[in-house]
Amino acid sequence: MNAHIKVGHKFPSVKLNTTYSFGLDDQEFVVAFESDRPADFVELIMALRETEASRFTLRDTPIFSYIQKTIHETLDDLG
């Protein structure tokens, strides 16, 4: 985890939220990232995947990307 924290500090524009995933699935925890700079997020993920700790990841789950909008903006986009 120290290596991941060190890598994460190189990307201050990406906010990290971590929580335990009891009852959600078989993972120990879930991480969620927030950023207004998608390129920084992609670079962070690529850098994290190069750490030695990532060699011990049994399976990598999908990444979902969204744009935060208000409910009114979302409804307007839907027409």
From TrEMBL:
Keywords recorded for this protein, A-Z: Heme, Iron, Metal-binding
Pfam families xrefs: Chlor_dismutase
Coiled-coil portions: none
Entries under Gene3D superfamilies matching the protein: Apc35880, domain 1
Keyword Iron: yes
Domain of life the protein comes from: Bacteria
Keyword flag tRNA processing: no
UniProt name for this protein: Chlorite dismutase
